[in-house]
Amino acid sequence: MRKIILDLAVSLDGFIEDENGEIDWCILDEEVLEELLKLASRIDTVLYGRISYDGYGNYTPADTASDFEKQFYWQINQMHKVVFTRNEDFNAPGATIIRDNIKDAVTQLKSRPGKDIWLFGGASLISALIADDLVDEYRIAVHPVVLGTGKPLFSNVKDRINLRLTHTRAFSSGLVGLYYQRS
């Protein structure tokens, strides 16, 4: 069965966005992009909430972006995209849109043949899939910044989730990668 992989940046104090919804504090250097390219080789499907899809579902890096960044987004833009929204007017050509029965839809996606699935975001979708115990692997990139306020990573988790640390990685920028699987 395919795995749902949550690969996400978080501040040292546990926020995935600052109070204005910004992620400009995230480090995206060549070392981080190499790690993301490794992730991209494992996946063939990306899960987005509607707002995250609007921002990143068809993102194209600037001409001045690094070759790594261009390669990464080129790979991601070739993958199957699934957008979760309750907005009846929303349309995303080429993407699968899921408006209800999230748990059933994700369970079906996991049972189909293919590579693993990246849970990109947003926060509501991440919270829903964590609450439904559908996330198999947590790849958390802890950035060396304290935001003080913002949107927390684990906002609506009501039950304990036991995880097993598989490995860690310290990046030269000060970012620390924590890699867990469900126990």
Write structural notes for this entry:
By secondary structure, the protein is of the alpha/beta class. It has one domain (4-10, 30-153): Dihydrofolate Reductase, subunit A (3-Layer(aba) Sandwich), CATH 3.40.430. The chain is built from five helices and ten strands; from the N terminus they run ββαβααββαβαββββ. Helix 1 packs parallel to helix 3. It has an eight-stranded mixed sheet. It has a two-stranded antiparallel sheet with strand order 2-8. It is 27% helix and 31% strand. The mean pLDDT is 93. The radius of gyration is 16 Å and the shape is globular. It has helices at residues 30-42, 50-56, 67-77, 102-111, 123-131, and strands at 4-11, 15-17, 43-49, 80-84, 96-98, 116-121, 137-143, 151-152, 163-170, 176-182.
How large is the count of helical segments? 5
Order of helices and strands: EEHEHHEEHEHEEEE
Under CATH, the topology can be stated as Dihydrofolate Reductase, subunit A
Secondary structure category: alpha/beta
The strand count comes to 10
SSE inventory with pairings:
Layout (H helix, E strand, L loop, with lengths): L3 E8 L3 E3 L12 H13 E7 H7 L10 H11 L2 E5 L11 E3 L3 H10 L4 E6 L1 H9 L5 E7 L7 E2 L10 E8 L5 E7 L1
Parallel strand pairs: 1-6, 1-7, 3-4, 3-6, 4-5
Antiparallel strand pairs: 2-8, 7-10, 9-10
Name the features.
10 strands; Dihydrofolate Reductase, subunit A; alpha/beta; eight-stranded mixed β-sheet
Quick take:
This protein has helices spanning 30-42, 50-56, 67-77, 102-111, 123-131; strands spanning 4-11, 15-17, 43-49, 80-84, 96-98, 116-121, 137-143, 151-152, 163-170, 176-182. By secondary structure, it is α/β, with parallel strands linked by helices. A hairpin with a 5-residue loop joins strand 9 (163-170) and strand 10 (176-182).
